[in-house]
Design goal:
Largest sheet of chain B: 2 strands, antiparallel
Distance between the termini of chain B: 23 Å
Shape of chain B: elongated
Number of strands of chain B: 2
Number of helices of chain B: 4
Strand content of chain B: 5-15%
Strand order of the largest sheet of chain A: 11-12-4-15-16-17
Number of strands of chain A: 23
Strand content of chain A: 15-25%
Oligomer: heterodimer
Helix content of chain A: 40-55%
Helix content of chain B: 55-70%
Mean pLDDT of chain A: 76
Mean pLDDT of chain B: 82
Low-confidence stretches of chain A: 87-108, 213-218, 274-278, 381-394, 537-543
Largest interface: A-B, 43 and 40 residues
Low-confidence stretches of chain B: none
């Protein structure tokens, strides 16, 4: 069951089904928007309506029979969509003598088509040459060169071949050879929309005047309807204008970003002589991960940008032919890019799956005076290199040289432990990772670490390098220096770059340990030139109010309540609490410790 | 010149006698010059506004009254000029094309 309306087309009354009516109304509206009033729009609409009425009359048998949607479709087909009228959009004004004035100002749109008559491959260059008024030879040359320059030309050519329709009919061919598209014409295309907005505005005010003058003779309803329709028209024109401005931005934005993306990718890949100091990703990813990763990136970012350009071109140059292939292809390319990105991410996470440890004992020359001095070579963190900082403890940098780039990793940690025997020992533990056991082993073995000993001084390097065929797999070097009981080490200031969480009897932090001598005692490392226990517990000392002092190698605890007497005879300390009496005079040092 | 071809053809068809748009369309379609009828109306309106064409209303027994178009004296003059220009162009093109 369909609702039927009664309409008057070209002075003849028809019954028409509601959907059919909607379709017809939209079609006529589309024609109305296509022409401007200066084209003689009203007359054209009248003629077209008259012709439509005639065609309907031929179709229906009795005046009672309603017009259905398929009949409207047929009529529209014969009459053509406004965009198909384009061939006659050459609105060259005629002068009084009937001579066409060949002024440079013409208002029509020329469309880009592919030219099948002058083609080498797809007629893209020939088609473009008509638009831009350039000899197609130059365009072909440009495309040919860009085929070799990173293959971008090929991509652009394929896009254009999809976007541009082929000029099939004579009308299309005439249209193709029309005026060129340049900035001037783009500007005009925008200005035209402005014109049509102005027209609508004029109509609107005219409508209002009529409303005032003929309030009585007109039906209020139809006037309101009229005002409503013109308002709608104005809004439509403003929207169309806005859409064109947006299209210009889309086009520029898309082109610029796509260009940036392309240059960035090519630069990373080191193509075309663009020299980036480091082929950075090479240090982390396998060649296939890099290839698929970049392809995924290109698809995920590049395709949407290309679509932006495509849509921009379509709106600006009024290319209306829908190419559903474009949508399917771009959609599936983005989907493929997405899947690729996930797969690459997965594969990257697997890079660190297996762990391999290799352990080497390094020879240590035993120092003559039982004291080993420990120092580190401090690397300038980002000196002449390009570095990435992961966090405070683990960071690495890539140092680019003139010939080659080297990755320098700063995860070297030195621990100091008690030696089982009576000589210094040094053990180097290299830890590497990989996606399988072989790769992990390769990664743990190929580290280039330097350390040198000069007499009693050991100089550790703060970082190590990995060879070019080995990737960054979060490699680490742990050094273990074993110190025999009774022997001493001195931690130089710079050694703070390598020491890591060294156990000692006073629980002193690594940073405070440097600059001091530490002796290995059966309980652990103990500082011999500074009393860290004092720092650790403040003035409290051991137990309550007790300080431990060493007198002639003997440890004595003295409370802070002790009485200290210093006079011409010497020093006398009396601690009643701990029952300690220390006397220093001309007879020497005398210690009485009854507390023990 | 290339832009005036459609106008030239329409005027040439009309010059053969008063004619109704549907018949013009039929002839143009035959020559593959236009594809859809909608193309014709704006052209006719413009030629008429330029004073090259005139029309008369003729009652139709089947439908709404029809516009029958004919050339005005100015139109006939203009068509002659167009024909000369066209022939010149055809000659020029043929001569040039022969050299290839």
């Amino acid at each position: 069951m369909n609702k039927t309306l009664t309409v008057n087309i070209g002075g003849i009354v028809f019954h028409i089904e509601e959907q059919a009516y909607e379709k017809l109304r939209k079609y006529i509206d589309a024609i109305k928007t296509y022409f401007t009033s200066s084209d003689g729009r009203d007359e054209i609409i009248q003629d077209i309506e008259a012709r439509i009425a005639e065609m309907f009359q031929e179709k229906i048998k009795s005046s009672q029979q309603p017009i259905v949607e398929s009949e409207v479709d047929e009529v529209i087909n014969v009459m053509g969509r406004p965009e198909q009228f384009a061939a006659d959009r050459d609105d060259r004004p005629y002068d009084a003598a009937g001579q066409a004035t060949y002024s440079s100002y013409t208002r029509g749109y020329r469309r880009i088509y592919r030219d099948p008559d002058d083609k080498v491959i797809g007629g893209v260059c020939a088609g473009l040459s008509h638009r831009f008024g350039i000899d197609p030879l130059w365009l072909r040359l440009a495309f040919a060169i860009s085929f070799f320059a990173f293959g971008t030309g090929l991509l652009l050519y394929i896009v254009l071949m999809i976007v541009l329709p082929k000029a099939k009919t004579t009308a299309e061919k005439l249209e193709m050879r029309g005026e060129p598209v340049n900035i001037e014409n783009i500007k005009r295309s925008v200005a035209e929309e402005m014109d049509s907005i102005r027209d609508r505005m004029n109509e609107f005010t005219k409508g209002n005047k009529n409303f005032n003058a003929d309030t009585f003779s007109r039906k209020t309803g139809s006037v309101l309807e009229n005002i409503f329709e013109t308002t709608l028209d104005i809004i439509k024109s403003i929207l169309k204008f806005a859409v064109k401005v947006i299209a210009v931005f889309m086009l520029l934005f898309g082109l610029v970003l796509f260009g940036c993306l392309l240059i960035a990718l090519l630069a990373i890949l080191g193509v075309g002589g663009i020299d980036v100091p480091v082929f950075f990703t090479n240090f982390f990813l396998t060649p296939s991960q890099q290839f698929w990763g970049f392809t995924a990136m290109f698809l995920l970012i590049g395709i949407p940008l290309l679509m932006l350009v495509y849509q921009g071109i379509k709106i600006l140059f009024r290319i209306r032919h829908e190419n559903s292939m474009v949508r399917y292809i771009s959609g599936s390319l983005i989907a493929v890019g997405f899947i690729m990105a996930i797969a690459v991410g997965f594969s990257i996470s697997k890079n660190y799956r297996y762990r391999d440890v290799s352990r080497v004992s390094l020879p240590v020359i035993q120092p003559a005076n039982d004291t080993l001095y420990i120092d580190a070579v401090k690397n300038e963190r980002y000196s002449n290199g390009f570095g990435i900082h992961i966090d405070d403890d683990d960071d690495f940098s890539v140092v680019s040289g003139t010939l080659d780039s080297i990755m320098r990793i700063r995860t070297v940690r030195l621990d100091i432990q008690k030696a089982p025997g009576d000589s210094f020992e040094l053990v180097k533990v290299q830890i590497g990772r990989g996606s399988n056991r072989e790769e992990a082993a390769l990664s743990s073995r190929n580290m280039n670490y330097k350390f040198e000993q000069q007499d009693s001084l050991i100089l550790f390097d703060q970082s190590f390098t990995i060879s070019k065929d080995v990737k960054f797999r979060n490699q680490k070097i742990n050094l273990i220096l074993r110190v025999p009981v009774g022997k001493t080490i001195y931690l130089d200031e710079n050694s703070r770059y390598v020491i890591y969480d060294i156990d000692n009897v006073t629980n002193t932090y690594d940073g405070l340990m440097t600059g001091h001598y530490w002796q290995m005692t059966p309980r652990g490392l103990k500082c011999t030139d500074y009393d860290f226990s004092r720092d650790e517990t403040g003035h409290e000392g051991i137990g309550d109010n007790t300080h431990r002092i060493t007198i002639n190698g003997k440890e004595v605890d003295i409370s802070s309540d002790a009485k200290v007497k210093i006079d011409k005879h010497g020093i006398e300390v009396t601690d009643d609490k701990n029952n300690v009496h220390v006397k220093v005079d001309k007879d020497g040092v005398k210690v009485e410790d009854k507390g023990e | 010149m290339r832009k005036g071809v459609l106008e030239f053809c329409i005027m040439a068809i009309i010059s053969q006698g008063e004619i109704y748009p549907s018949d013009i369309i039929a002839k143009m379609k035959e020559a593959k010059l236009i594809v859809v009828e909608g193309t014709l109306y704006p052209l006719l309106t413009r030629l008429k506004n330029a004073g090259l064409l005139a029309y008369t209303w003729v009652e139709s027994n089947a439908g709404p009254p029809r516009k029958y178009y004919k050339l005005t004296p100015i139109g006939e003059e203009f068509l002659k000029e167009l024909k000369v220009t066209w022939n010149e162009l055809v000659d020029a093109v043929n001569k040039t094309a022969k050299q290839i």
